[in-house]
From TrEMBL:
GO terms for molecular function: metal ion binding; UDP-2,3-diacylglucosamine hydrolase activity. Coiled coil: none annotated. The keyword Ligase does not apply. Pfam families: Metallophos (PF00149). GO terms for cellular component: membrane. This is UDP-2,3-diacylglucosamine hydrolase. Residues 4-208 form the Calcineurin-like phosphoesterase domain. The keyword Metal-binding applies. Keywords: Cell inner membrane, Cell membrane, Hydrolase, Manganese, Membrane, Metal-binding. InterPro entries: Calcineurin-like_PHP, LpxH-like, Metallo-depent_PP-like. GO terms for biological process: lipid A biosynthetic process. It comes from Sphingobacterium paludis. It comes from the Bacteria.
Protein backbone atom coordinates (compact mmCIF):
# COMPACT_ATOMS: atom_id res chain seq x y z
CA UNK A 1 0.00 0.00 0.00
CA UNK A 2 1.33 3.42 -0.96
CA UNK A 3 0.59 5.38 2.19
CA UNK A 4 3.84 7.08 3.26
CA UNK A 5 5.10 10.58 2.50
CA UNK A 6 8.86 11.12 2.36
CA UNK A 7 10.81 14.35 2.83
CA UNK A 8 14.46 14.97 1.95
CA UNK A 9 16.60 17.95 1.01
CA UNK A 10 20.07 19.23 0.23
CA UNK A 11 21.40 16.50 -2.04
CA UNK A 12 23.61 19.13 -3.73
CA UNK A 13 24.05 16.96 -6.79
CA UNK A 14 26.83 18.30 -8.98
CA UNK A 15 28.92 19.70 -6.15
CA UNK A 16 32.65 19.50 -6.87
CA UNK A 17 34.44 17.11 -7.07
CA UNK A 18 32.30 15.30 -9.58
CA UNK A 19 33.34 11.85 -8.31
CA UNK A 20 31.79 12.39 -4.88
CA UNK A 21 28.64 13.72 -6.52
CA UNK A 22 28.28 10.50 -8.54
CA UNK A 23 28.74 8.36 -5.42
CA UNK A 24 26.13 10.45 -3.61
CA UNK A 25 23.78 10.16 -6.57
CA UNK A 26 24.03 6.37 -6.47
CA UNK A 27 23.38 6.39 -2.72
CA UNK A 28 20.27 8.53 -3.20
CA UNK A 29 19.06 6.20 -5.94
CA UNK A 30 19.49 3.21 -3.62
CA UNK A 31 17.34 5.03 -1.04
CA UNK A 32 14.70 5.86 -3.66
CA UNK A 33 14.61 2.19 -4.62
CA UNK A 34 13.67 1.26 -1.05
CA UNK A 35 10.92 3.85 -0.66
CA UNK A 36 9.26 3.27 -4.03
CA UNK A 37 7.35 0.30 -2.63
CA UNK A 38 5.31 2.34 -0.16
CA UNK A 39 5.76 6.01 -1.13
CA UNK A 40 2.65 8.00 -1.92
CA UNK A 41 4.48 11.30 -2.16
CA UNK A 42 8.07 12.51 -2.24
CA UNK A 43 8.85 16.08 -1.23
CA UNK A 44 12.34 17.30 -2.11
CA UNK A 45 12.76 20.39 0.04
CA UNK A 46 15.34 22.39 -1.91
CA UNK A 47 18.99 22.31 -3.00
CA UNK A 48 18.52 18.99 -4.76
CA UNK A 49 21.06 20.32 -7.26
CA UNK A 50 24.12 22.35 -6.38
CA UNK A 51 23.17 24.54 -9.32
CA UNK A 52 20.23 24.53 -11.69
CA UNK A 53 19.17 26.89 -14.44
CA UNK A 54 16.74 26.09 -17.23
CA UNK A 55 17.53 27.81 -20.49
CA UNK A 56 14.79 27.53 -23.10
CA UNK A 57 16.48 24.50 -24.71
CA UNK A 58 19.28 23.58 -22.25
CA UNK A 59 19.47 22.24 -18.70
CA UNK A 60 22.64 21.38 -16.71
CA UNK A 61 24.06 18.05 -17.85
CA UNK A 62 24.41 15.11 -15.49
CA UNK A 63 22.09 13.55 -12.88
CA UNK A 64 20.63 11.24 -15.52
CA UNK A 65 20.42 8.25 -13.18
CA UNK A 66 18.72 10.31 -10.49
CA UNK A 67 16.24 11.87 -12.91
CA UNK A 68 15.56 8.47 -14.43
CA UNK A 69 14.75 7.05 -10.98
CA UNK A 70 12.40 9.96 -10.30
CA UNK A 71 10.73 9.26 -13.65
CA UNK A 72 10.26 5.64 -12.55
CA UNK A 73 8.64 6.77 -9.31
CA UNK A 74 6.40 9.20 -11.19
CA UNK A 75 5.32 6.41 -13.54
CA UNK A 76 4.44 4.31 -10.49
CA UNK A 77 2.09 7.05 -9.34
CA UNK A 78 4.29 8.73 -6.72
CA UNK A 79 3.58 12.45 -6.50
CA UNK A 80 6.84 14.43 -6.60
CA UNK A 81 7.27 17.97 -5.29
CA UNK A 82 10.39 20.11 -5.73
CA UNK A 83 11.02 23.14 -3.54
CA UNK A 84 13.27 25.86 -4.87
CA UNK A 85 16.37 26.19 -2.70
CA UNK A 86 19.06 28.83 -2.70
CA UNK A 87 21.20 26.70 -5.05
CA UNK A 88 18.45 25.63 -7.46
CA UNK A 89 15.97 28.50 -7.37
CA UNK A 90 15.89 28.75 -11.16
CA UNK A 91 13.55 25.84 -11.79
CA UNK A 92 10.87 26.65 -14.34
CA UNK A 93 8.90 24.12 -16.39
CA UNK A 94 11.28 21.29 -17.33
CA UNK A 95 10.85 19.06 -14.27
CA UNK A 96 7.15 19.76 -14.23
CA UNK A 97 6.82 18.66 -17.85
CA UNK A 98 9.08 15.61 -17.64
CA UNK A 99 8.10 14.29 -14.19
CA UNK A 100 4.67 15.87 -13.69
CA UNK A 101 6.30 17.36 -10.59
CA UNK A 102 4.96 20.26 -8.57
CA UNK A 103 7.40 23.17 -8.15
CA UNK A 104 7.11 25.22 -4.94
CA UNK A 105 8.79 28.61 -4.81
CA UNK A 106 8.34 29.38 -1.12
CA UNK A 107 6.32 27.71 1.62
CA UNK A 108 3.81 24.92 1.25
CA UNK A 109 1.10 24.43 3.85
CA UNK A 110 -0.42 20.96 3.93
CA UNK A 111 -3.00 19.20 6.03
CA UNK A 112 -2.20 15.50 6.30
CA UNK A 113 -4.36 13.15 8.34
CA UNK A 114 -5.62 16.04 10.44
CA UNK A 115 -2.15 17.55 11.06
CA UNK A 116 -0.95 20.90 9.71
CA UNK A 117 2.49 21.09 8.07
CA UNK A 118 4.50 24.20 7.23
CA UNK A 119 7.21 23.26 4.72
CA UNK A 120 9.92 25.55 3.29
CA UNK A 121 13.52 25.18 2.18
CA UNK A 122 14.43 27.58 4.97
CA UNK A 123 16.60 30.15 3.23
CA UNK A 124 15.84 33.79 3.96
CA UNK A 125 13.61 33.06 6.94
CA UNK A 126 13.99 34.35 10.47
CA UNK A 127 15.85 37.39 11.75
CA UNK A 128 18.98 38.89 10.21
CA UNK A 129 20.83 37.88 7.03
CA UNK A 130 19.61 40.99 5.21
CA UNK A 131 22.34 40.75 2.56
CA UNK A 132 21.19 37.29 1.45
CA UNK A 133 17.54 38.32 1.54
CA UNK A 134 18.31 41.17 -0.85
CA UNK A 135 20.30 38.89 -3.17
CA UNK A 136 17.51 36.31 -3.13
CA UNK A 137 14.93 38.88 -4.19
CA UNK A 138 17.22 40.01 -7.02
CA UNK A 139 18.12 36.48 -8.21
CA UNK A 140 14.43 35.60 -8.33
CA UNK A 141 13.51 38.70 -10.29
CA UNK A 142 12.49 38.39 -13.94
CA UNK A 143 15.20 40.89 -14.86
CA UNK A 144 17.99 38.79 -13.34
CA UNK A 145 16.67 35.61 -14.93
CA UNK A 146 16.35 37.30 -18.33
CA UNK A 147 19.90 38.67 -18.11
CA UNK A 148 21.36 35.32 -17.04
CA UNK A 149 19.56 33.53 -19.86
CA UNK A 150 21.39 35.79 -22.33
CA UNK A 151 24.71 34.17 -21.28
CA UNK A 152 25.98 31.14 -23.17
CA UNK A 153 25.39 28.05 -20.97
CA UNK A 154 29.14 27.31 -20.77
CA UNK A 155 29.73 30.77 -19.33
CA UNK A 156 26.62 31.01 -17.20
CA UNK A 157 26.95 27.61 -15.58
CA UNK A 158 30.70 28.18 -15.08
CA UNK A 159 30.03 31.44 -13.23
CA UNK A 160 27.37 29.76 -11.09
CA UNK A 161 29.66 26.85 -10.17
CA UNK A 162 32.42 29.24 -9.08
CA UNK A 163 29.90 31.18 -7.00
CA UNK A 164 28.74 27.93 -5.38
CA UNK A 165 32.32 26.90 -4.56
CA UNK A 166 32.98 30.33 -3.05
CA UNK A 167 29.83 30.06 -0.93
CA UNK A 168 30.91 26.70 0.49
CA UNK A 169 34.50 27.89 1.06
CA UNK A 170 33.18 30.67 3.30
CA UNK A 171 31.26 28.12 5.37
CA UNK A 172 33.75 25.30 5.84
CA UNK A 173 33.20 24.89 9.58
CA UNK A 174 31.10 21.81 10.42
CA UNK A 175 27.53 22.61 11.37
CA UNK A 176 26.68 22.53 15.07
CA UNK A 177 23.49 23.33 16.94
CA UNK A 178 23.60 26.93 18.17
CA UNK A 179 20.88 26.66 20.80
CA UNK A 180 17.19 27.40 20.38
CA UNK A 181 17.67 31.13 21.02
CA UNK A 182 20.19 31.41 18.14
CA UNK A 183 18.80 28.94 15.62
CA UNK A 184 16.99 31.26 13.20
CA UNK A 185 14.60 28.61 11.87
CA UNK A 186 13.56 27.70 15.40
CA UNK A 187 12.95 31.38 16.13
CA UNK A 188 11.00 31.76 12.90
CA UNK A 189 8.79 28.75 13.71
CA UNK A 190 8.09 30.01 17.24
CA UNK A 191 7.08 33.38 15.85
CA UNK A 192 4.71 31.73 13.34
CA UNK A 193 3.11 29.76 16.16
CA UNK A 194 2.09 33.01 17.84
CA UNK A 195 -0.51 33.57 15.13
CA UNK A 196 -1.12 30.18 13.48
CA UNK A 197 -0.88 26.63 14.78
CA UNK A 198 1.16 24.06 12.90
CA UNK A 199 1.80 20.57 14.14
CA UNK A 200 5.03 20.29 12.13
CA UNK A 201 7.54 22.67 10.63
CA UNK A 202 9.78 20.99 8.05
CA UNK A 203 12.86 22.74 6.69
CA UNK A 204 16.05 22.05 4.76
CA UNK A 205 18.88 24.53 4.13
CA UNK A 206 20.50 24.12 7.54
CA UNK A 207 22.90 21.20 7.02
CA UNK A 208 22.16 19.80 10.44
CA UNK A 209 19.41 17.26 11.15
CA UNK A 210 17.36 17.91 14.25
CA UNK A 211 13.91 17.24 15.68
CA UNK A 212 12.80 19.61 18.45
CA UNK A 213 9.56 20.31 20.31
CA UNK A 214 8.32 23.88 19.99
CA UNK A 215 5.20 23.40 22.09
CA UNK A 216 3.35 20.39 23.52
CA UNK A 217 1.65 19.88 20.15
CA UNK A 218 4.20 21.31 17.69
CA UNK A 219 7.62 20.22 16.44
CA UNK A 220 10.31 21.45 14.07
CA UNK A 221 12.30 19.05 11.93
CA UNK A 222 15.31 20.01 9.89
CA UNK A 223 16.02 17.38 7.26
CA UNK A 224 19.82 17.73 7.25
CA UNK A 225 21.68 16.83 4.05
CA UNK A 226 23.13 14.00 1.96
CA UNK A 227 26.81 14.92 2.06
CA UNK A 228 27.56 13.67 5.58
CA UNK A 229 24.30 12.89 7.39
CA UNK A 230 22.08 11.13 4.77
CA UNK A 231 18.90 11.95 6.67
CA UNK A 232 15.25 12.19 5.68
CA UNK A 233 11.81 12.20 7.29
CA UNK A 234 8.78 10.01 6.74
CA UNK A 235 5.12 10.58 7.58
CA UNK A 236 3.21 7.35 8.18
CA UNK A 237 -0.19 8.89 8.85
CA UNK A 238 0.40 9.28 12.59
CA UNK A 239 3.96 10.42 13.19
CA UNK A 240 6.70 12.31 11.36
CA UNK A 241 10.02 10.58 12.02
CA UNK A 242 13.54 11.77 11.20
CA UNK A 243 15.71 8.89 10.00
CA UNK A 244 19.20 8.21 8.69
CA UNK A 245 19.75 6.15 5.55
CA UNK A 246 22.45 3.51 5.76
CA UNK A 247 23.42 1.11 2.99
Amino acid sequence: MRDKIYFASDFHLGVSPRSTSRARELRIIAWLDTIKVDAKELLLVGDVFDFWFEYSTVVPKGFIRFLGKLAELADLGVKITFFKGNHDMWMFGYLQEELQATIVSDELILELDGKRFFIHHGDGLGPGDTKYKFLKSFFRSRLCQWLFARLHPNLGIGIAQRWSRHSRASNEEPESFLGEDKEWLVQYAKEKLRSTHFDYFVFGHRHLPYDLPLAPDSRIINLGEWIQHFTYAVWDGKDLTLKEWTL
